[in-house]
């Protein structure tokens, strides 16, 4: 029986883990990627667009359109994350200009608005394109069937200040606009759950063993990320945030959470913090589902099995089933 595919748009800032989320999406039979919209974040917007093209080249899916979006946050200056994602944004993998970059199209905001019907939105970068789309046409924006957002944090520490997660910290004003104006609950896939999804040295050894164009690409782009994690927090391996949000769209039994109200801190030392009013102090309407528990083995198994289906047996042995 043929299952009806979920149409999704991926709004992203590739980004090592964004690249992994795109690869998971294009290797999942239940998903139809309608397009990729790009925003400045991990690196500047044009580099992110070139990286999206690079990922589509590796995944043989250059038919998916890539749209260049906003390059600057609404109020703050853009702060990028080359120390985490490398100068190119894909670790130490260089992305040189080639003819495929002519495929990059202008007009991310219009693309989002014109394709919101019957479509799910995955947002794994700063929410600037989304906020701009709402400013332009809130009615069309609200046609998105769902929004799943990698960003924010509830009880886990921040990753760019004590309390703030990168995507929400880069443009907290945009995040507030999106949560205030979208008429359904947004699923927040924050650091509470993504931190548990670590690509370990054993997983990377498996990539080496599989030895395909795709596995070598993932091995190469994550090398820099692994070094960063060791230098920064003495973690072996690297946290892969964005693909978990994609995995949750494919299978929402992957993680669980609770509904609440989210409000952003817009200035001061705690700028970019996602405040979750779990006790209902402010008596505001719920606007978020905060994920707090994840089955990380199920996630890792899904990620590897989708990308490397021929190696199911090795994947089950090395990663385990859940
Ligand atoms: C998020 O920030 C970015 O650096 C990653 O790509 C991810 O989307 C994690 O905080
Ligand atoms: Ca990202």
- The CATH H-level superfamily is Ribonucleoside hydrolase-like
| Total of helices | 14
Physical arrangement of strands within the biggest beta sheet:
4-3-2-1-5-6-7-13-10
Query: How would you spell out the order of helices and strands?
Result: EHEHEHEHEHHEHHEHEHHEHEEEEHH
What is the molecular shape?
A: globular
Into which percent range does the helicity of residues fall?
A: 25-40%
| CATH class category name | Alpha Beta
Strand content: 15-25%
In total, how many domains does the architecture comprise?
Answer: 1
Largest sheet composition: 9 strands, mixed
Distance between the termini: 25 Å
Mean pLDDT: 96
> How many β-strand stretches?
13
Report the bound ligands by name, code or SMILES: beta-D-ribofuranose, calcium ion
Uncertain runs are none
Category by helix and strand content:
alpha/beta
Write up what this structure looks like.
The chain is an alpha/beta fold and 322 residues long. Helix 5 (128-136) packs across helix 8 (172-181) and helix 10 (201-210) packs antiparallel against helix 11 (213-233). 50% of the residues are buried. Helix 2 links the parallel strand 2 and strand 3. The chain contains 14 helices and 13 strands. The chain has helices at 16-26, 45-58, 82-85, 108-114, 128-136, 138-141, 166-170, 172-181, 191-194, 201-210, 213-233, 242-250, 296-307, 312-319, and strands spanning 6-12, 31-38, 66-68, 105-106, 120-123, 146-150, 186-189, 198-199, 238-239, 255-260, 262-264, 274-276, 288-294. It has one domain: Ribonucleoside hydrolase-like (Inosine-uridine Nucleoside N-ribohydrolase, Chain A, Alpha-Beta Complex). Helices cover 40% and strands 17% of the residues. The radius of gyration is 18 Å and the shape is globular. The chain has a 9-stranded mixed β-sheet, with helices on both faces. The chain has a two-stranded antiparallel ribbon with strand order 8-9. A two-stranded antiparallel ribbon has the order 11-12. It binds beta-D-ribofuranose and calcium ion.
